[in-house]
Each structure stands twice: as structure tokens, then as C-alpha cells.
């Protein structure tokens, strides 16, 4: 881009940038090596010894749940949809108050992995099913994070990695979905520049994650959480300085239709070829997210690695609210970038490079009403340029602005960026390797071996999981596409966790039927919508045409697979036999028994020798409903969390109006 021609040292970075990066790498690797000494058994590796307090748990929840691709997706979504792009992360906002309620329940399970819940509440085969499902979720999360990070690192280097990739000309296999043939095809393509960055990042988090386990991840997440906050706010003041101040957003709000609208109009969404970000769409995304969040493999660690229930609930809730505030910063960075790159003083427009000027013309045309009058081929070309520009926007803006301020700022931003993705990926790798080791390998393949044996299996399985994630990220086309996969993937089986906690009638058959029907319906509505459309049984408004292909709108996809999964599970629960009373009593005794500070349990999902007294049920006369009676702490924190939700939305709206 604009500064790519400047003579810097290696890969377009100043020596000060490399010094900052070197210091970051040394500290992180030292923590990983030090943490090896703390790992003595499976609980140490997969749950960090349950020794962490509120601050560490807060930054662990923040770090493990905040990856750089989320910032990049919000900035990219803001570029394409204006202020409404914030909902790519705010969709989780409505679920956040429930974290205050969910965290103590997860901690009371006293489990190492979420699969332990399925085995204790249901049976072994459902635990194995979840283990495979959970590993797939982790692979998807790691792939999405690495994809977004690679794009941004490439942009931060001024696309130097792309030039290196062209020279190297290394060919690799790739899988892609053929929309016409409705099949995946294995093809061959050149290794892209951003994928060199992905490989470098992967090596780093694999080394310290394999060495120190979850303990290393939590300690490094404390450091990386602070750097992620730096990453979220570092660029913001400088990009506003470049455009002439905060008030320029309002003055130049006509650069894109609906640029400062908190909810995108259907017209804007149609122009973008995407779903209208309407209240109903946000509601369905939020419900799907709430169903899926509890089933994500790392959540058991986020809630369970603290000393008591309070550490888990404080860390889970406050850490995620910290992320919501960062989301506001990401969004306004994206809005400022619209003015910076599309305004009259755009560095693209004033550049002497014809390529920059051509990009500027494409971006302006994409935002113009005249775009809809262009031939389809020309529209596709301009839209592709706009999507690619959006995916690299955060890194590109940093590369164009920060070197003008001071040397080393790019290195600080790059270290913060790597911290964000590594803090997420290390947790996903460790927790998913725990699922394989504890619930598949140890119980189904090789039994009764030493702790050392299983520790090494956990480390090696984590490496294999990361390799699979590297393969998966090659199938993503843009940041938003990756995020949609991440949102939808966990929800089908998450339904069974929610019902399993509160309703005794939900049994083993319900888990299988609900999960499998949900997955099958999702596959049908996501990949064979043309056949559903041909039946004529559903309203035309549920479908749209994309590149001459009939697809079902995202919101109706979620209504379909979530609705069928819940309804089928309830029907089966009412028609089939209950589980054994003894198994149910044991599980709900766990759920109603508070965690005692310093308690020691002999094995996952068991009580200590002298447990705390059981809490009371909300409906004591019901033999099926097992909702605990809320305490003052439960209700007070829940209400305060909802106040925080509306305060964040009000703050966002206020800032947009002030602008």
C-alpha cells in the first residue's frame, strides 16, 4: 500500500518494531517453560490446578474469548455496514448477563472437561459424541482466529508477505465448496502470504501451550489480555487525528448509506448482499450464541479453573464485559477508517501509485447507488475488492498511520495482535486435547496407563488439532464467513446442556435425537436450500438468490435448525423412559452443592468428603424442574449485568450521535 515503498528493514518493519516483538516472544516462551514445572498431573495440565483468583480468571475469560479476528471482523463489518457492523460481536451482548448464572453451575460440576458433564448426566457414548463435536468446535475457532490474524499481519507488513509468497511459489492442496455441484473439491493453490504469518503464530502458541498446559495459558492470558486492550485502543486516537477529529464522522456520514445507523436498513443489507441486521436477526443470533457458548470446550476451563464459584462467575462475566467495551473501540476505529480512506483527503486518492487510485475508485463505486446498475461481472469484481480491503483494513490503517507517529508502535500493535489470537488458540488447543485424551483415548482406546503417558498424548493430540485447524482455515473466503461458521457450529448440542441442567426428563435419547436432527436440518438449510425452495412449502421471503444460487436467509436457517432440535428433543423426552433415579440424583446433588474453598475431589464430577450443605430448589414441589433458588448475589449480579448491557448500547448510540 501507500507506505510499502519506504525502506525499512525486514518485512516492512522498523528495527524498533522487531525489538518489541522479540521482547514479547521471550517473555511468553519463558512463561511456557516455567509452567512445565507446575504440571504434575492431568488436573494441572487441563485445569491449571484450580488455583486462580478473580483477576487472573477475568483476564483468562477475556483473553481466551477475545481473538484478533473478532476485532478484524467488527472493523470489516463496520466498513461494509457502518455502525451496524458492531453487531458481529454485540450479538453476544444479550447473552452476557447469563454468564453470571451459568459460571457457578459449570464450577459445581467439578469437571475437567465438558464431556465429563455428558458422562455424568447422561452416559459414556454421549460424552464421546460431545468430545468429537467439541474438538470440531475448537478446530473451527482456532481456524477462524488464525485466518483473521494472518490477514492483518500481512497488512501490517505492507503486503510484503504476499510478495514473498509469489516469489516462493509453494503449492499446497486446498478444499473448496462447489456451489453448483454441492460437493467439496480438493484443488491446488499457491501458499498465500498471510498463511506464512499463520504458521509463525501457530509455532509460538503450540510451544508454550504444549509445555505448560492451561496454567501457562492462564498466566500468559493475563499478559496477553492487557496487550489485547492496548491493541483495541492503540490505533483509535491516531486515526481520528488523521481525519481531523471525532466530529468528522458526522460531517462525512454520507460517504456510505446508513453509516451511523445502529441497525442497518434492509436497503443497506441488500446492497451488501447480506442479511439485514434487524432486531429479529440479532435476537436469533443471540439465542444461537447463548445455546452455543456453554458448550464451547474452553468454557469449562474459564468457569472451572478458579478457586471457588465466585472467581469463575466474576471472571467469566466481567472479562466478557471488558471485551464488549473493546468492541466499541473496534467499531469506531472502523468508522474513522471509512472517512480516512474514502474522504476527500484519502491517502489512496492522493497517492502517486495508480494501483492505490484504482482501489479508491472501486471503494467509492461500491458505496455508490450506481453500483447496482453495473453488469454482474463488474459488480462481482468490485465487491471482491471491497471485501478484501475490509478484511485487511485494521492492519492497513495501522501500517499507514502508526509509523508516522513513532517507531515501534507497529511492533507493539503486532505483539498485541499476536497476543489476542494466541490467548484464544492456546486455550482451545489445550481444552480440546483434554477432550480427546480424557474422554476418548483414556476411556475407549488405551486404559490404565501412567499420568505421564496421558500428558504426552494430550500434548501430541493438541498438535494434531492445530494442524487440522490450519487445513480448515484454507476454506474460509472472508472474516464474516468465518464468524458465521463459529456462531452456528456449537448450538445444536448446546441445547442438551441447557435442558440437561434444568430438566430431569431430558435423557440420552433426547441428546442424540436433538443433536442429530439439528445438524441434519442445518446441513439441509445451509447447503440444499434449493431443494427446500422447490417444494413450495415455505414463503419466498425465507430465501434469496446469491450468484444465481437459491439460499435460505441466515435468520431462517437458525430458526429452522434450532426449532427442530428443541422440539424433537422435547417430544422424545416425553415419550421415552427416564434415566435411572440414582444417576439423576447424583448429578443434581452436584448441581445444588456449592464449591468449598480448597476442596479436593477424588475424580471429575464427584463431591469432596465434607461438602457444603445443598442449596434449595426454585420449585421444591416439582419432581422434574431442577432450577436452583437464586441468591441475593445471583439476582444482584444478574440485574447489574443487564444494566451494563444497556449502558454499553446507550454509550455506543450516544457516541454515534455526538459524532
UniProtKB/TrEMBL annotation:
Q: Where are the transmembrane segments?
A: 18-36, 56-79, 85-106, 127-147, 196-219, 226-244, 280-300, 321-342, 401-422, 453-473, 479-501, 508-529, 555-575, 635-652
Keyword terms of this UniProt record: Cell membrane, Ion transport, Membrane, Sodium, Sodium transport, Symport, Transmembrane, Transmembrane helix, Transport
- Gene3D superfamilies in the cross-refs: Sodium/glucose cotransporter
Known InterPro entries for this protein?
Na/Glc_symporter_sf, Na/solute_symporter, Sodium:Solute_Symporter
Main location (coarse class)? membrane
| Molecular function, one GO term | symporter activity
- Signal sequence range: none
Q: Which GO terms describe its cellular component?
A: plasma membrane
Tell me the Gene Ontology biological-process terms attached to this UniProt entry.
sodium ion transport
Which reaction(s) does the protein catalyse, per the Swiss-Prot or TrEMBL entry?
Answer: L-proline(in) + Na(+)(in) = L-proline(out) + Na(+)(out)
Q: How does it sit in the membrane?
A: Multi-pass membrane protein
Q: Where located?
A: Cell membrane
- Matching Pfam families, A to Z? SSF
Instruction: Spell out the family assignment given in the record's similarity comment.
Output: Belongs to the sodium:solute symporter (SSF) (TC 2.A.21) family.
Protein name listed in UniProt:
Sodium/proline symporter
Gene, per the UniProt record: putP_2
Amino acid at each position: 500500500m501507500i507506505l510499502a515503498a519506504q525502506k525499512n528493514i525486514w518485512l516492512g518493519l522498523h528495527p524498533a518494531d522487531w525489538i518489541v516483538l522479540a521482547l514479547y516472544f521471550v517473555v511468553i516462551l519463558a512463561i511456557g517453560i516455567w509452567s512445565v514445572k507446575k504440571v504434575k498431573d492431568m488436573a494441572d495440565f487441563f485445569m491449571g490446578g484450580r488455583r486462580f483468583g478473580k483477576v487472573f480468571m477475568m483476564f483468562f475469560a477475556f483473553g481466551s474469548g477475545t481473538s484478533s479476528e473478532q476485532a478484524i471482523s467488527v472493523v470489516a463489518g463496520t466498513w461494509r455496514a457502518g455502525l451496524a457492523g458492531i453487531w458481529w460481536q454485540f450479538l453476544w451482548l444479550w447473552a452476557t448477563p447469563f454468564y453470571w448464572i451459568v459460571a457457578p453451575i459449570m464450577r459445581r460440576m467439578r469437571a475437567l472437561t465438558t464431556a465429563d458433564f455428558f458422562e455424568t448426566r447422561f452416559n459414556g457414548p454421549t460424552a464421546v459424541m460431545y468430545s468429537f463435536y467439541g474438538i470440531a468446535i475448537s478446530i473451527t475457532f482456532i481456524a477462524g482466529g488464525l485466518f483473521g490474524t494472518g490477514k492483518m499481519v500481512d497488512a501490517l507488513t505492507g503486503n510484503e508477505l504476499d510478495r514473498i509468497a509469489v516469489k516462493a511459489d509453494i503449492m499446497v492442496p486446498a478444499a473448496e465448496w462447489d456451489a453448483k455441484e454441492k460437493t467439496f473439491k480438493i484443488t491446488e493453490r499457491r501458499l498465500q502470504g498471510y498463511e506464512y504469518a499463520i504458521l509463525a503464530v501457530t509455532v509460538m502458541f503450540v510451544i508454550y501451550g504444549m509445555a505448560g498446559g492451561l496454567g501457562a495459558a492462564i498466566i500468559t492470558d493475563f499478559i496477553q489480555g492487557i496487550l489485547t486492550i492496548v491493541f483495541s485502543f492503540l490505533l483509535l486516537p491516531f486515526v481520528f487525528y488523521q481525519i481531523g477529529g471525532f466530529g468528522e464522522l458526522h460531517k462525512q456520514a454520507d460517504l456510505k448509506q446508513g453509516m451511523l445507523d445502529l441497525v442497518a436498513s434492509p436497503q443497506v443489507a441488500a446492497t451488501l448482499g447480506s442479511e439485514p441486521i434487524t432486531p429479529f436477526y440479532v435476537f436469533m443470533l443471540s439465542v444461537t450464541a447463548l445455546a452455543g457458548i456453554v458448550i464451547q470446550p474452553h468454557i469449562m476451563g474459564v468457569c472451572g479453573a478458579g478457586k471457588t464459584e465466585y472467581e469463575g462467575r466474576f471472571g467469566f462475566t466481567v472479562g466478557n464485559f471488558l471485551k464488549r467495551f473493546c468492541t466499541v473501540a473496534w467499531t469506531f476505529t472502523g468508522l474513522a477508517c471509512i472517512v480516512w480512506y474514502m474522504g476527500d483527503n484519502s491517502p489512496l486518492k492522493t497517492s502517486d501509485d495508480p494501483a492505490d487510485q484504482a482501489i479508491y475508485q472501486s471503494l467509492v463505486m461500491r458505496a455508490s447507488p450506481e453500483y447496482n446498475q453495473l453488469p454482474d461481472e463488474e459488480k462481482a469484481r468490485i465487491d471482491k475488492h471491497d471485501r478484501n480491503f475490509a478484511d485487511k483494513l485494521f492492519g492497513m490503517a495501522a501500517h499507514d498511520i502508526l509509523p508516522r507517529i513513532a517507531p515501534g508502535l507497529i511492533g507493539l500493535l503486532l505483539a498485541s495482535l499476536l497476543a489476542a489470537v494466541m490467548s484464544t488458540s492456546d486455550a482451545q488447543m489445550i481444552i480440546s486435547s483434554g477432550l480427546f485424551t480424557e474422554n476418548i483415548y483414556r476411556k475407549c482406546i488405551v486404559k490404565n496407563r501412567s499420568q505421564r503417558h496421558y500428558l504426552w498424548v494430550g500434548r501430541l493430540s493438541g498438535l494434531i488439532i492445530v494442524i487440522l485447524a490450519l487445513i480448515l482455515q484454507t476454506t474460509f473466503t472472508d472474516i464474516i464467513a468465518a464468524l458465521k461458521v463459529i456462531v452456528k457450529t456449537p448450538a445444536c448440542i448446546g441445547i442438551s446442556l441447557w435442558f440437561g441442567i434444568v430438566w430431569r426428563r431430558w435423557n440420552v435419547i433426547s441428546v442424540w435425537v436433538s443433536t442429530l436432527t439439528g445438524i441434519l436440518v442445518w446441513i439441509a438449510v445451509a447447503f440444499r436450500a434449493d431443494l427446500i425452495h422447490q417444494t413450495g412449502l415455505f414463503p419466498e421471503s425465507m430465501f434469496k438468490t446469491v450468484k444465481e444460487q437459491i439460499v435460505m436467509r441466515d435468520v431462517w436457517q437458525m430458526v429452522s435448525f434450532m426449532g427442530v432440535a428443541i422440539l424433537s428433543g422435547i417430544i422424545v423426552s416425553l415419550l421415552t423412559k427416564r434415566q435411572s433415579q440414582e444417576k439423576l440424583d447424583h448429578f443434581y446433588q452436584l448441581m445444588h452443592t456449592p464449591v468449598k474453598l480448597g476442596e479436593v475431589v477424588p475424580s471429575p464430577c464427584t463431591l469432596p468428603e465434607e461438602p457444603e450443605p445443598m442449596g434449595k430448589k426454585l420449585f421444591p414441589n416439582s419432581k422434574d424442574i431442577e432450577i436452583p433458588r437464586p441468591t441475593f448475589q445471583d439476582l444482584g449480579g444478574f440485574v447489574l449485568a443487564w444494566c451494563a448491557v444497556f449502558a454499553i448500547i446507550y454509550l455506543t448510540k450516544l457516541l454515534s450521535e455526538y459524532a
